[in-house]
Amino acid sequence: TAASNGALIERAIANLHPSPSSPAAGNALTTATGLHFFGVLGTGSQAAAFGNAIGTGLPCTATQAAPCNFSVTTVGTVVVAAVTGTLACAQIELGVSRTSCTPAATRAADVVTAPTASAVAAGLTPGQWCIGVTATPFGGRAWATAAGTQTIWSAGVSAAANTARAYQTGGNWVLPIVYDNAAGSRYLSNPPAPSGNATSLFKTCDSIGTLFGSVNGVPVTGIAGAGTGLLGSWPATLYLGTDNSGSAIDGWLSNAKLCKSSMAPSCR
Q: CA–CA separation, 245 vs 235, rounded Å?
């Protein structure tokens, strides 16, 4: 989804609501334990309570401005009540972060790619590069609240040899990591934490295996990992907002730049 604040890039989800496109009373069947979100679109509201599922966080009434989150410890049914007012969409989803409402039973993962062949032909090398991108969590989610992994960008499919990735894991951690020719990893550690749910600028550069980067202009000072920090070759595809393997930013991305110099002012 494109908008003035960038492209909204989200993971695949199953919408468990019994009538997502025309919300009405019914039973939603949860199929996994863990955190769930219940959100709606429209001027009305809808209440939910545990049926034979067991957990915490329900009953709750969801509005567009105030979605519900609840945790399931024993799978089963969640009962949604009749709608008050008017709703165009309702969604119950499993996950550590909320995504936009889809009126369908499922939504495929968003995949945004930038082939790198033309950049390599123009002089991009494995030993000199820089990537800068601006990201904003969806739905007012604070950076610190995400317990899972949200990928900001991934050069190739992460963790394979000759790939690189910037991602958030366990809240504030944003780790640009490079896997060398032998799949050994080297990464920047203890990056500055983005504030609240603010739009944030992430930059990562590599100069012949020396990694450096910043979050909102504040340098990342730590370095860890036994790998060389040097790509043997550039992956054919740069994935934006996803690693093409199940992890996505679940938010907005904009101003993505791939520079062929680690000193490029626009990327640094």
A: 15
